[in-house]
């Protein structure tokens, strides 16, 4: 089922999310709905707060990035078929020299800005079977994970911008929170509290 994506300005996007257990109700159905919602909006990642749930869960599928011809073959193969569920994730380490990449967010449509992040992360997380993993990720996969991980900590990519950039996009963010924007996927706007 395709769920409405919560727009910028909703308090749920600012909550530090809670850990969950294997007893979380209808978890496999929720994960399936999150993937369906993400694909419908042409996203590569979606975190639970973006559908109104303040829990430490996000899904990623970087396959669309693999079609970028500007990437090396190695980068393309790393992104191709990288599909993963992350539950109760915890970044243990971020290393390397920060690099910029133009990021966007399904909760903040039509706003894209360069964000600096470290290229390599070490992550502890549980999969949908609640098996614990500790893995290292790098490049675009690491970046997508960092972006979604920020969501479960109540952080948005716009928080990482300079004061000047924040001022320049302020009116666009206000329009999003008021629902004064046209998107081709289902959204819920805080000022309107209704589905689109």
UniProtKB/TrEMBL annotation:
Gene: def
Keywords: Hydrolase, Iron, Metal-binding, Protein biosynthesis
Record has Hydrolase as a keyword: yes
Cofactor: Fe(2+)
Catalytic activity: N-terminal N-formyl-L-methionyl-[peptide] + H2O = N-terminal L-methionyl-[peptide] + formate
Protein task: Removes the formyl group from the N-terminal Met of newly synthesized proteins. Requires at least a dipeptide for an efficient rate of reaction. N-terminal L-methionine is a prerequisite for activity but the enzyme has broad specificity at other positions.
Gene Ontology BP annotations: translation
Name of this chain's protein: Peptide deformylase
Family annotation (SUPFAM superfamilies): Peptide deformylase
EC class (word): hydrolase
GO molecular function per UniProt: metal ion binding; peptide deformylase activity
Keyword match Kinase: no
Active site (UniProt): 148
Pfam families listed in its UniProt record: Pep_deformylase
EC number: 3.5.1.88
Binding, Fe cation: 105, 147, 151
Family classification: Belongs to the polypeptide deformylase family.
Cofactor binding description: Binds 1 Fe(2+) ion.
Species assigned in the record: Gelidibacter maritimus
